[in-house]
Amino acid sequence: MLPAGFRFGAATAAYQIEGAHDQDGRGPSIWDTFSHTPGRTLGGATGDTACDHYHRYREDVELLRQLGVDSYRFSFSWSRLLPEGTGPVNAKGVDFYDRLLDELLAAGIRPAVTLYHWDLPQALEDRGGWRVRETAEAFAGYTALAAERFGDRVERWITLNEPHCSAFVGYAEGRHAPGAQEGRGALAAAHHLLVGHGLAVRELRAAGAQEVGITLNLDRIHTASDRPEDLAALRRAEVLHNEVWTQPLFSGRYPADEAETWAGQADGPWRRPGDLELIGAPLDFLGINFYRPITVAAAPHRAEDPEQRSAVDIGVTELDPYGTRHTTMGWPVVPAAFTELLTGLHGRYPELPPIWITENGCADPDTVGPDGQVHDTGRIDYLADHLAAVADAIAAGVDVRGYFLWSLLDNFEWARGYDQRFGLVRVDYDTKTRTPKDSYHWYRGLITAQRARTEEPAR
Ligand code: IFM
Q1: What's the CA gap between 51 and 48, in Å, rounded?
Q2: Which of 165, 243, 295, 444 gives 20 to 30 Å between its CA and that of 121?
Q3: Average pLDDT of the segment spanning 438-452
Q4: Measured between alpha carbons, how far is 214 from 449 in angstroms, rounded to an integer?
Q5: Is 162 an active-site residue?
Q6: Is 359 a pocket residue for ligand 1 (Cβ < 6 Å)?
Q7: Which atom of ligand 1 is nearest to 13's Cα?
Q8: How far is ligand 1, taken at its centre, from the CA of residue 330, in Å?
Q9: In this predicted structure, what is the pLDDT of residue 206?
Q10: pLDDT at residue 264, rounded to an integer
């Protein structure tokens, strides 16, 4: 059972729901460019209109109010506020987030804002993107603007969402914007994302922010066997997926054995004296996004010459031995792995700040029934089992304070387009009509019951 006072929310991100990609002065981001490039997204899907949240935000806040969440996690679009990434401010972009924040507060919902959920202004990518330090500095400027304009109404600030995806899926695998497949470029991007985080924390502190953190998609990684080569592969995967983030943030250093993973390429001239102190500044919370575990085994590198390798070519392959239900993303449903991830982190980093689950959810093959409703029992099972896994971690001593469900709405699932439906609310993409699914009603009931328990006088 979750403790009294545990908080519930729902989450989204700007490019996935807003639409209005070229309206009211918004500048292009790398996701506009990427999704408009043939062959990059499923069926050529783009976020041009997405859920049209930009125009329907009042309806969406009303859905949140009726759901009963006490917090809503969403992201600012950097290029809606600063169309070029730096320089002139877009007043209409500021107006939009002013209206959204006011609407949320009027509905009694506390805003949790992600500053960077993958949508880098294209103008900054044109100057090198996260490969260059100037982007981290630009991020600090954007953060200062956001803190100054909106800091009076934002309860919780998340600097970056899943920097692993920005650095390694975007600059090494090439499955995400900007679609690059690089070695050193991706490793420099990882470092500059962390520097950007550190600079943003500094700006937020200067503006008086009380709740500042970062969201990581850490992986619970299993090994295919205890053979030495698989254990070595596990270690390389731990560095790539987890420790390149957790060690600088919470131990003040990069993993001592990172050269095993990246053949010495990670420690490049982009790392400067003083960076680790900046990156490791204390945080008020750590956001964790969890969906599924992975299993790894040793495999040949794709490129023999280390100089030719991308940063994800680390001699590891992923297997799927789970023999369980899979979501439409192809992800195995293994709730116990969530508990393992949380307890493992707690054991490894005793000084960790309190944890918030900033994303967890399930893409299912929802269909609209003859009654016009979506009876998404698979999603309800997934959510119930994963919340129970969080409760188990708390019972084992992990300090988890709250849970943001991914996602309020069906939305643009990046390279997977609109086929993957994660929402508590179905979106008909032709009409933009919103239909709460059974999981929405289930989550509302759970929140109501939790609130009643919290407000019960102690016996
Ligand atoms: O939709 C994404 C989100 O933007 C980041 N975390 C994972 C989700 C599901 O893939």
Answers
A1: 9
A2: 243
A3: 96
A4: 30
A5: yes
A6: yes
A7: 4
A8: 14
A9: 98
A10: 85
Pairing of strands 355-359, 285-289: parallel
Residue 52 Cβ < 6 Å to ligand 1:
no
314/266 Cα distance (integer angstroms): 12
The pTM assigned to this predicted structure is: 0.98
CA of 161 to the centre of ligand 1 (A): 9
Ligand 1 atom at shortest distance from the alpha carbon of 16 = 4
Query: Residue holding tokens 């990609």?
Result: 21
CB of 157 within 8 A of CB of 205?
Answer: no
Domains and CATH numbers, the chain: 7-454 (3.20.20.80)
- At 422, the amino acid letter reads F
Following DSSP, what letter does each residue of 335-371 receive, concatenated? HHHHHHHHHHHHHH-TTPPPEEEEE----------TT
Among candidates 16, 44, 18, 46, which has minimal Cα distance to 32? 46
Listing DSSP states for 320-342 in one string gives: ----S-B-TTS-B--HHHHHHHH
**CB of 413 sitting under 6 A from ligand 1:** yes
**CA 189–ligand 1 middle distance (angstroms):** 20
Ligand 1 pocket, residue 162 CB under 6 Å: yes
- Is 148 part of the annotated catalytic residue set? no
**Which of 238, 243, 340, 359 is an active site residue?**
359
d(CA 209, CA 193): 20
Q: Which of 103, 162, 243, 340 is catalytic?
A: 162
Query: CB under 8 Å to 435, separation ≥6 — which residues?
Result: 368, 372, 373, 374, 425, 426, 428
Would the CB of 412 count as within 6 Å of ligand 1? no
Percent of the chain clearing pLDDT 70 (strictly above): 99
> Which of 162, 328, 421 to mutate to test ligand 1, by most ligand atoms within 8 A of the CB atom?
162
**pLDDT higher than 60, residue 424:** yes
Helices (H), 216-328: 228-238, 244-250, 258-262, 275-279
> What sign has the CA pseudo-torsion 432, 104, 76, 248?
negative
Q: 3-state SS string over 378-435? A: HHHHHHHHHHHHHHHHHHCCCCEEEEEEECCECCCCHHHCCCCCCCCEEECCCCCCEE
Average pLDDT, the chain: 97
Q: Count the neighbouring beta carbons within 10 Å of the beta carbon of residue 448.
A: 12
What lies within 8 Å, CB to CB, of 337 at 6+ separation is 220, 222, 290, 292, 293, 389
| Beta carbons of 434 and 376 less than 8 angstroms apart | no
Q: Where are the extended beta strands (E) located within 45-178? A: 71-75, 110-116, 156-161
- Cα(383) to ligand 1 centroid in Å equals 16
Measure 210 CA to ligand 1 centroid, in angstroms: 26
pLDDT tens-digit map of 188-246: 999 999 999 999 999 999 999 999 999 999 999 999 999 999 999 999 999 999 999 99
